[in-house]
Amino acid sequence: MRHAAIIGPMAEPKTKPAPARAKRPRQAAPAAAPPPAVLAEPELARGRTPPLDPKEQHELLHRGVALFNGLRYWHAHEAWETLWRAADEKDRDFYQGLIMVAAGLLHLQRRNARGARNKLSEGLDKLKKYEPTYRDLVLNELVGRGEVILADLNEGRLPYLIPPVLRFVEMDRERDFNS
Asked: Which of 97, 114, 106 is nearest to 153 (CA)?
């Protein structure tokens, strides 16, 4: 006597069918032209951002200086780049000079003499226009130390990095503490 075979549930197919495609939404009708007041804002050049408020400028500059003095050149560069993108024309070379000096010192940390020489040279040239101080930073010390490092690089030596320090101009103690 033959027994009927017990058949279990059918196995699922190895591949599942692709889900049904969603229909592409229809494009909305073009928006009406914005009112003239919106168009009155000046166009920013590529890579530029709107001006920052003075408090934010102050915080970014100080954060960049603290990072620079802590040998965190990449992070200092990032803080100052935000300032550079939003800066007016008279400050752009100042921030770009700080950025380039930080980039040059980063290259030096990484033992890349060519990159260090190029960025330091460009950055120091930009900062010289702002010596001895600018935005409460003592630049002549930074430029002087940078030139010593650059001279070593130009003579084919990869200097031991005794990092330059950015220093703020001394406070006016009478005004700050006797108010």
From this structure: 114
